[in-house]
## 1
Amino acid sequence: MQLYLLALNPTDSVTEGFLPAALRLGLAVTVLTDRPDAHRAVAADLEGEGGVGVEVLKCDVRDFRAVIARISAHRAPDAVFSNSDHLQTQTALAADYFGLPAKSWRAALRTKDKAEMRRRLAAAGADAVRSVELSPGQDPAAVSAAPGMPYPCVVKPREGVASEDVVLVEGPQELVRRCEEIQARRPGAALVVEEYLAGELYTLETLGDGRVRHVLGGFRTELSPPPYFVEERLTYVPVHPEPVVDQVLSQLDALGVGFGACHTEFVVHEGRARIIEVNYRAIGDQCDLLLTQLLDIPLFEHILRTHLGESLPPDLGVRTDVAARLDYPCADRAGILASGPGAADLEYGDVKLTYRPLRGIGERHELHRTNRDFLGVVRATGTDQELVDRAVAEFLAAQRWEITP
């Protein structure tokens, strides 16, 4: 069977998750990408481990017409799939063109476009968040003085990801300044200004086949100090309170979300769950790699099987007697990473801990206030949260990352 996987830059989710899973399923894999050289290096590594059938073709994957043309001129597809935030609508349109199982392109667009998501939720009576959209180049001064503009509020790119250029502002002058800064960096981007939603930040991870939807638990997320929103730590939550899950799923239903993997971020305040954003794909930053190990399920295979038209089992056999945590050591300034720990796989009693560096020694980076500042990722799993937390704390206390100008 032929799988087309659409991708931009290589990610851990693709290289360590979906590609190996596709090969285990015996699929012929064609990666369509605008960055073929990087993906060919990944494919070569997989084949060196015994994998076969990974093909890489150059394609303007941001244009669904180019994707359809590339597939149509090649081999007949059995599935068209992507785990990229930026490519869900294009993937859904291409899959639908060939009559294949797919997410609704309308739902993919609603979740990617944060202004449209707010409008859709409000129209459905699911949740109303005060927000204003700024078109590319629009003067933010007109918005900052608008009647009813809530402060504090959050400025974000309408179609952004990974907390890039997401910032909390306290008043009109700061709003104008922050918008102008983002517009200078992203001259073609529309922005959204919306009320700040107070509460504890969580995620909900779901997997559906269009008929049944499984909840895989979620994470409690700890952020950097304001005004930025960098995710620094995630602690696994096996089961959220049922009323909270019901509220989030109701909002996802209003958006039309229910096929394949979905990663939803939301806050809970006084029992009320309100969506921050919906990423209509599997959770990233190695959380998906942790989940497949933690829950003891073939998560990546399940996701791919839904796109091949297979039904999910009524019970995935997900473990709930588990505990886990991920920490992301972050750079606190621009510069060259002069030293840092290497990859490690350790055991602290019953706790299994993995560390993977995300930045090479000798690399220079600016400070982005996003996950691009991550120096590495610590993943720890076990059955007791206190022991997991202690293992991570001990590991981090023994490490040093040196950044020089």
## 2
Amino acid sequence: MTEPPRTARGARTRASLLEAAEHVFAELGYADTSVVRITERAGVAQGTFYLYFDSKLDLFDELVDDLNRRVRHAMSEASAAAPDRLSAERAGFRAFFAFTAEHPALYRIIRAAEFVSPRALHRHYDRIVEGYAEGLAEAQRAGEVRPDLDPDVAAWALMGIGELVGMRWVLWERGTESSAEGDAGGGVPDHVLDQVSLLVDGAIGRRTPSVTRSEENGA
């Protein structure tokens, strides 16, 4: 990977190439995307591309990392002011759905990474889970979530909920009449976010120890 640009102008050009790549990769897929297509969309000369990236794959890897940074920032910023962990979960999901609505390319690019650059794919999910699990563990120590929770497993499971719900109610609903109905963030209907929150509450919310069947029968 090439070194980061040293000037503000260079940073803007590099950002323009990343933005162009986000759209072109999403529209055409990795195999049919060319450096020429990306530079044309970014409005820069083809030779300029190689001042910032070594290859199409280098740009793709950096795009995955860039999308990862942005979505993690959006989620952490949204949940930072929440008064408790369950409120933070709701705010984080809301931010994720809003980011997905604004950047639908996230789904296609991350899925392409499974075949194009598995290391970038693993890095994407590992970085999300690392911060997610740390937040859950901190809330666990504070007594805000159930003590028997495995933060790492919970982080992967909750991330899966967010991805599939976003796919169903953001990506699949784009451009339909139902997407214009009341939503809680980027096209996700209010009732969907309510149901996600209910599931999360049930999964991680602090609960009193469950009564066993033998205890119910007075054994």
## 3
Amino acid sequence: MNIAYCIICHRNTPILRTSIQLLSPKNTVYLHVDLKSNLEEFKEYHDKVIFIKQRIDVRWARFSQIECTLALLNEIENTSYHYMCLLSGDDLPLQSNAAIKAFFHKHNGTEFLGIQPDFDSKALISRVQYLHSEFDSKRNKTFWEHCFWGFKRNFLGHKKKPLFSKLPPLHKGPQWFCLSHDACTYILRYLKENPWYMEAFRFSHCSDEVFFHTLLMNSSFKDRLYKHNELSDDNAKALRYIDWRSGPDYPKVLTENDLTTIPDSNFLFARKFSEHTNLKVYYEWLKSRS
């Protein structure tokens, strides 16, 4: 069982270092380092990972997040793998290499893409239907920027995108997933044959949670989704433990103190971990699960 681990990162942290150390043996790890970051800071991984040459300036909630994922898919297109797992630099595995491989071997042919069962369809359509500027997606707006943004939204409105009407019904879920070689190949082939689909998502807001989900949910791969009608937690469907409930950050920034709260189930990865996590405690915890 060959697994291609595709990691999106912008900082070199102890969390990223730990994930690469644990996952790189007997797997191929592909690393996308944000274009804004200094590549020299990641040179310690030169003999452990494959660096993606097509580096994207990734911006929160922007189409660049989709472009980054597609750069990774294009990188592995002609390689030999059974599953591609998309991870962030803040993720840690919750199972050993052997256990992860055994899980995918057991569920070979299944797609691990989280689909949220209930969502505000009007708000979701708004993400994609209208042209959203870089300013719209800016985090931590000042008071006056919020005032201007509110005026623009309420009185000037957003311009509609003409290609939106061509899109099938929208679906959403977490950005992170594990997909089979067949599903990844299908995505790339579909986009080559239907370039309008990508254009329909440009200048959207948080469309990384919609782009791949809509594509696969409107294909035969819908029938291969892991526990699609059984689990209500869309992150669990993608094999991720992510705490969106506890706070104070959303999602919660995890530390070694959160390890004992993670259910002993089929979660294979967790995010996102603080770079100050006591990794000695983490290694002991991971060993106890083997």
